[in-house]
Amino acid sequence: MDLDYALRVDAPAALTAESSTEQNAAYEKWEHSNRISLMIMKGSITTAIRGAIPDSDNAKLYLAHIEEQFQGSSKAHATTLITKMVTLKYSGSNGVREHILRMNDMASQLKGLDMKISEGFLVHFIITSLPAQFGLFKINYNTQKRKWKMSELISMCVQEEERLKSEQLDSAHVAITGPSKGKGKKFGKGSMQGNKSASVIKTDKASSSGTKGSSGPRCHFCKDKGHMRKECLKFREWLEKKCNLSICFCYESYTIDVPLNAWWVDTGVTVHISNSLQGFLSVKKLNKGDRNVLVGNGEKAQVEAVGTLRLVLESGFNLDLVDTVYVPSMTRNLISVSRLDAYGYLFKFENTGFSLSLYSRVIGSGLLEENLYKLLLNASFTESLKTMNVNDVVAKTCDIAYVVGMLGRYQINPGMGHWKAAKKVIRYLQGTKDFMLTSKKSDNLENLHSSKSSVLEFRDFEQLI
């Protein structure tokens, strides 16, 4: 059926008794197309706008009335395009190729309005719209005598963008602690509230460098100028007499109990992070230092492998996480919202959950747990993730190496709390030097004895010091 026939052909003359068969057929065809076209146009326009358009029984004439209501000024359109081109900057949300093509499209629209822009000027204008990360790229272009074509600019910018992405450090803004247990202990006249961030309160006396009578901040304990209370020697001596000093560490692995087979959605992480090799379709091992992840406390977590990981959602959909990094030191498995958004996935957060869609089809969902959004996975797939390999178990075990590593950070200038912790480590090594793993010959390997219970004495590192 030719629906737009009435829009292409003028209305035929009215039928009479002398009209031929061909004229009757042509008129019926036009009448049918005209009626359908009017019904489609009026049905697709809102009531508020339809009331402002003059009514007509002719679809072609009704379309002309609509065009009159929405006529725009070519000058105003040109002004809008020029303003967009001048203010448009590459933000990095989409690729640099899309940014160049968008500006090239604006130039083509201006050309249709008799405002032609030369290719050389457009190339230079696009380069100036690039951010500071492309500084070396801009210098390289300015030092060359030859002008680039638009196709050359696109290929060069795409290569430079890939180089910048390879040098960019992935980040995961994770800083999770245990629940607060009330106010902190009071010391002297002031009080120190429990710090919820991952921090360390130093207690070494060598850091005190305040001198009496000097200008600067005033100590609230001894009332002298030149130092603060935390640097005051008298205040530290008073603390040693008043109570036992303590060092407070906040480490995610030992303050919360996170299921190893759970995946959490995070908007602050720039890459998918897994603490297990389970579920990877392909894995590429990395050398030490090749790639790191910057975590919330400023430390760099080493990436041991990278690959594509597959998750089976509750709906049965296979979610492939491309460029997932394997970081065994991380406690939680994290899904980057920005990475999935780049592949066309859509997150909709509402109430205490969220839904995940792809091409307008809901493929998964999640719930809010522990103030974080947890992705719901297939039950059988979740059970399969519990079977971790030996490397994952070793990475998650709270062993003596962790305690020694933490103490090693303060070996240059240790405080009293560090010495007490070191003595307890030595006592632990002396008392467990004869512990070992033994097995007997059988069809099924059986663990007869393990020192794991003794190792778990170091689960709360805060109690050591």
Automatic annotation (TrEMBL):
Transmembrane segments: none annotated. It comes from the Eukaryota. Pfam families: Pol_BBD (PF22936), Retrotran_gag_2 (PF14223). Residues 180-217 are annotated as: Disordered. InterPro entries: PolX-like_BBD (IPR054722). Residues 263-345 form the Retrovirus-related Pol polyprotein from transposon TNT 1-94-like beta-barrel domain. Residues 207-216 have a biased composition (Low complexity). This is Retrovirus-related Pol polyprotein from transposon TNT 1-94-like beta-barrel domain-containing protein. It comes from Escallonia rubra.
